[in-house]
Design brief:
With 163 residues, the chain is α/β, with parallel strands linked by helices. The protein has a single domain, classed as Response regulator (Rossmann fold), CATH 3.40.50.2300. The chain has six helices and seven strands, in the order H-E-H-E-H-E-H-E-H-E-H-E-E. The strands form two sheets. The chain has a five-stranded parallel sheet with strand order 2-1-3-4-5, with helices on both faces. It has a two-stranded antiparallel sheet with strand order 6-7. The protein starts with a helix and ends in a 15-residue tail after the last strand. The model has no long low-confidence stretch (mean pLDDT 91).
Length: 163
């Protein structure tokens, strides 16, 4: 996909950037604008983020783990409550400084679609957003959790291999 095609696809969506750090929100907004995003909302804490998700129903949420009032993990638990929260299927990309294995695994278990480490690049951000837009994964219940369906590995067969 060309940069022009991806920018056109990203142009049509709304994105929430939820991060307690004003500088990080500004930097993320600039990167999003550079890749074609035009409808960008911001929230400085978990309560504000929940309010924006409820009222605007963004197409994608970029969420930091460390948030005041309601943490990123708690926000995911609240959002991923079908029948309780109005938009439980909203795609969430965790964007955080703290990317150790335990946190990544917990974020996936809670229902994030993608995970990015700060600082990130516009290209990495674009690629994660496009993966959500181009290959959307339906939400499924796994035990007590409501999560994106696991990706299926695409196995390519060698046409010259014996059958």
């Amino acid at each position: 996909m060309s940069a022009k095609q991806s920018a056109k696809l990203i142009d049509g969506i709304s994105i929430l950037v939820a991060d307690q750090n004003q500088h990080a929100r500004k930097l993320t907004r600039m990167m999003l604008m550079n890749i074609g995003a035009k409808s960008i909302y911001e929230a400085a804490d978990g309560i504000a983020a929940l309010d924006v998700i409820r009222t605007t129903n963004p197409d994608v949420v970029l969420l930091d783990w460390e948030m005041p009032l309601v943490s990123g993990a708690e926000l995911i638990r609240i959002v991923r409550s079908p029948g309780v929260f109005p938009h439980p299927d909203v795609p969430i990309i965790m964007l955080t400084l703290h990317a150790y294995l335990g946190r990544v695994n917990e974020a996936i278990r809670l229902g994030v679609h993608e995970f990015l480490c700060k600082p990130t690049s516009p290209a990495a951000l674009r690629d994660r957003i496009l993966s959500i837009l181009i290959k959307p994964r339906p939400m499924v219940r796994v035990g007590e959790f409501y999560v994106p369906k696991l990706r299926q590995l695409e196995v390519q067969r060698d046409p010259t291999a014996a059958q």
